[in-house]
């Protein structure tokens, strides 16, 4: 099983919970230096809890299942520590 398949398999353990709330996630890229770039989809893309979902759920599931992954990034959410961050929907 290649690296992408293993990442997808890890995400499949989280997807049912995302789908229950009308969301999902897609793997956009795995870089040469083993950084996974994810895109949050549906309700996850504009949920105010998306950073927590990302850090506590997606990132941890991937790193636990695929230890070679050095970092996981969401390409469509803003870091909550960013001074320019806004709460979606407000």
TrEMBL record:
<feature type="domain" description="NIF system FeS cluster assembly NifU C-terminal">
    <location>
        <begin position="7"/>
        <end position="73"/>
    </location>
</feature>
<protein>
    <submittedName>
        <fullName>NifU family protein</fullName>
    </submittedName>
</protein>
<dbReference type="InterPro" id="IPR001075">
    <property type="entry name" value="NIF_FeS_clus_asmbl_NifU_C"/>
</dbReference>
<dbReference type="Pfam" id="PF01106">
    <property type="entry name" value="NifU"/>
</dbReference>
<comment type="similarity">
    <text>Belongs to the NifU family.</text>
</comment>
<dbReference type="InterPro" id="IPR034904">
    <property type="entry name" value="FSCA_dom_sf"/>
</dbReference>
């Amino acid at each position: 099983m290649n690296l992408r398949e293993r990442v997808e398999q890890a995400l499949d353990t989280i997807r049912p919970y995302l789908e229950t709330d009308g969301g999902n996630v897609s793997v956009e890229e795995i870089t040469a230096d083993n950084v996974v770039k994810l895109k949050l989809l549906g309700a996850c893309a504009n949920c105010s809890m998306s950073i927590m979902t990302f850090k506590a759920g997606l990132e941890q599931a991937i790193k636990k299942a695929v230890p070679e992954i050095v970092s996981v990034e969401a390409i469509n959410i803003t870091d909550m520590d960013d001074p320019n961050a806004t709460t979606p929907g407000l």
